[in-house]
Amino acid sequence: MTKVTAQMSVSLDGFYAGARHSGDGSWIDSAEAAGFFRITRWVIDAMAWRERQGFAGGVQDTNSDIIAESFESAGAYVMGRRMADGGEIPWGEEPPFRAPVFVVTHRPRQTLVRRGGTSFTYVTDGIAGAIEQARAAANGKNVAIAGGGSLLRQVIKAGLLDELELHVVPVVLGTGMRLLDADLDLSGKEAIELTPNRVVHTPAVTHLRYTVNGRAALVLDDRGSGTGEPMPGDRGDA
Q1: How many helices (H) and strands (E) does the chain have?
Q2: How many CB atoms lie within 10 A of CB 78?
Q3: DSSP secondary structure string, 144-179?
Q4: 225 SS3 class
Q5: Which is it for the CA torsion 177, 179, 182, 185, positive or negative?
Q6: What is the pLDDT along the chain (238 residues), one digit of tens a residue?
Q7: What is the distance between the alpha carbons of residues 36 and 34, in angstroms, rounded to a whole number?
Q8: Do 90 and 33 form a contact (C-beta atoms < 8 A)?
């Protein structure tokens, strides 16, 4: 069954990149890039990632196996316009996706067809529409939310994500672009609940995979009173 999945490397304090680049000067020299590269070094070292990029070398290890698994499971991708525009030149004529990519945007553009099975279709009717088109194109495989972080938050907020994998790197950035931020619009007693279904630890990164169960109001237990009833005043109202 097709699932909507996402994965992202984050620092121990939850950032997926440094402070957002304003557009002045080179992105590669920005704080955003510095944070991003610090928490994705484990990816760049992996043989499976390097092979997809057309690079030689790399390490064949557990991290590489996890990257290879993610490529194999994805039948289509959804990404934001900022990521698509930023990657268009570096990815070149044969991008690493090798599958249809659906770009969420407000600005129409003709579909770009690249070598190796990758195409970029620009979708202007919102995230749900992009995911629906990706499902139809995935041939039974998963729809992978490729990013960036703001798009992924919108997918989570809309309740459209089935599985989330966080690659937690043992570094504290202190500031930057945080994945799980306050704009998820959760009410005071509401939360998005997840069930962990895989934990893989390596020296460079810990891979945490969760099933996303969705929004739920807080319902307190009896706090050990033995009555089986919520404590007075605790009714779990959101």
Answers
A1: 7, 11
A2: 27
A3: EEEE-HHHHHHHHHTT--SEEEEEEES----SSEES
A4: coil
A5: positive
A6: 899 999 999 999 999 999 999 878 888 899 999 999 999 999 999 999 999 999 999 999 999 999 999 999 999 999 999 999 989 999 999 999 999 999 999 999 999 999 999 999 999 999 999 999 999 999 999 999 998 899 999 999 999 999 999 999 999 999 999 999 888 888 888 999 999 999 999 999 999 999 999 999 888 777 666 666 665 555 554 4
A7: 5
A8: no
* Beta strands 15-17 and 177-178, pairing class: antiparallel
Mention every residue, 6+ apart, whose C-beta is less than 8 A from residue 176. Answer: 11, 15, 16, 17, 18, 19, 20, 31, 32, 35
Q: Which of 187, 131, 121 is nearest to 154 (CA)?
A: 131
CA atoms within 13 A on the CB side of 60: 3
β-bridge pairing 190-201 and 206-217: antiparallel
